[in-house]
Amino acid sequence: MAGTGQAQLRDGDDVLLQVKDLVVHFPAGRRRVVHAVSEVSFDVVKGETLGIVGESGCGKSTVARAIIRLVDITAGEVLYAGQDLAGLEGEDLRRVRPQVQMIFQDPISSLNPRRRVRDVIAEGLAVWGDDIGSWSRDRIDELMDAVGVEARYGARRP
What we know:
By secondary structure, the protein is of the alpha+beta class. 23% of the residues lie in helices and 22% in strands. A 4-stranded antiparallel β-sheet has the order 2-1-3-4, with helices on one face.
């Protein structure tokens, strides 16, 4: 990122995700290094949603990928529920990833236009180990309502 970004850090038990001085560098040839993210810090409190906004190429996606460990963290800390994600590997990392997710910049292109919204939600639940059969239409409608999407949109296609 050009410059640094720092939201006011909070103290207390309500902090779910804490990113402290996150740095991500990528090798670019034998001697060059791309400084993709420089000292980014922020907290996300339980119940909040964080949107990262900036110019194209400024490091938004790299920050999100580093949080869920799709790219290596050069320096800094990423704490989820007090657990340092930077040190997790293998099965420990796989257990945490479903709880911390990113939405790509163009989420519509990630959706199959032939599938109903309700079916896409059910499939997402199955990916993380939930039995689709146990998720009734009513339960999926409740989940949609909980995030502010009217249940009637469940029968529509994206």
